[in-house]
Amino acid sequence: MKRALYLAKKANWRTSPNPMVGAVIVKNGKIIAEGYHKKAGLPHAEVEAIMKAKEHLNGATLYVTLEPCCHRDKKTPPCTDAIIKSGIKRVVIAMKDPNPKVSGKGIEILKSHGIEVIEGIFEEDARKLNEFYIKYITTKTPFVILKIAMTLDGKIATPSGESKWITSEESRKLVHLMRSRVDAILTAYGTVLKDNPMFTSRIKNGKNPLRVIIDPELKIPLNYHVYNPPPATIAVVHERKLSDDKLKLLNDRGIETIFFSSEKVDLKWLMKELGKREITSLMIEGGSSLNSYALWDGVVDKLMIFVAPKIIGGSNSYPSIGGKFYKNLNEAFEVRDLKIKRISGDIFIEGYLKKG
Ligand code: AOF
Ligand code: ZN
Hints:
It is built from 11 helices and 16 strands. The protein has helices at 2-9, 45-52, 79-86, 105-112, 123-129, 131-139, 169-181, 189-195, 244-252, 267-276, 288-296, and strands spanning 22-27, 30-36, 61-66, 90-95, 116-119, 143-151, 155-157, 184-188, 210-214, 233-238, 256-260, 281-284, 302-308, 318-319, 335-343, 346-353. Strands 11-10-9-8-12-6-13-16-15 form a 9-stranded mixed beta sheet, sandwiched between helices. Strand 8, helix 8 and strand 9 form a beta-alpha-beta unit. The protein is elongated, with a radius of gyration of 23 Å. In the C-terminal section; belongs to the HTP reductase family. In the N-terminal section; belongs to the cytidine and deoxycytidylate deaminase family.
């Protein structure tokens, strides 16, 4: 199963909206074939492995990181059919497929054909590997990472807005790696106006995320990087506050728009809109206000905080989280499963937001 997890990871977060899955076939104590799911639309891991096997699979054991699929209304045929036909006698699964169309049904079908099924081997690793997929397939909204690069005193910019660079180059490389893994980046016009960022992934073999920019009135000049694809951009604009001329400018450039009509864009609603576009994961790279909205709108799943050994101080410098606050400490947002790492001179903190 460890080998199957290793194979799954080879897809390098390129399978969206599908999960990353690895499979290994063992016969007489030997690995005789392996496979992984490379990309949505391409064969599933199990089928890859079965196709590659050069000998009969009668009596073989299949190790797979996700419950084999059994549904038909999709791009590829069900893996359960291929497994049953192959003669495989035992299937070891790391985790159930959370997809409501599968979720246990794949296992039942295998069992009803006399195949022995063992579940829950290295389940935690498998769940972590596919945290984007699990959130998306069960809620139809993206898994949201809030990324913050801040000083020891929790500031993200000086009072004049200077923020380049707070963290080390090594930390920034990790941000580029994360950009390469998520489907989209979310930011707002303030951040874009300040730095004219590209939000691309500038690492070897990096994949650029879609850029989602909250720019209600189109304040960002069209010659800024974000409005110059590739990669593609979605502008989140206000139904009434955006002039027709400006809308035409966006349309002429082929920039997709999402309209909202409330005073402030409701991020919960926006996540549903992005989910409809098959965005399964998203990283927020914004300023004090967007970070605050993200928390209070309840969309954050995971925090990734880079802390640099610097202190800016001052009450006019920008805090990592601005806006609203809790009056009582016992109400404060809580973060669970903290992981802490040193990245060159910085401290990297990762954790999941406790909800409800
Ligand atoms: C598996 N093995 O390697 C993967 C599975 O559109 P399709 O045909 O690729 O189907 C996508 C669904 O299949 C996806 O939502 C999930 O339920 C399952 N993914 N299942 O047995 C795999 N990638
Ligand atoms: Zn399948």
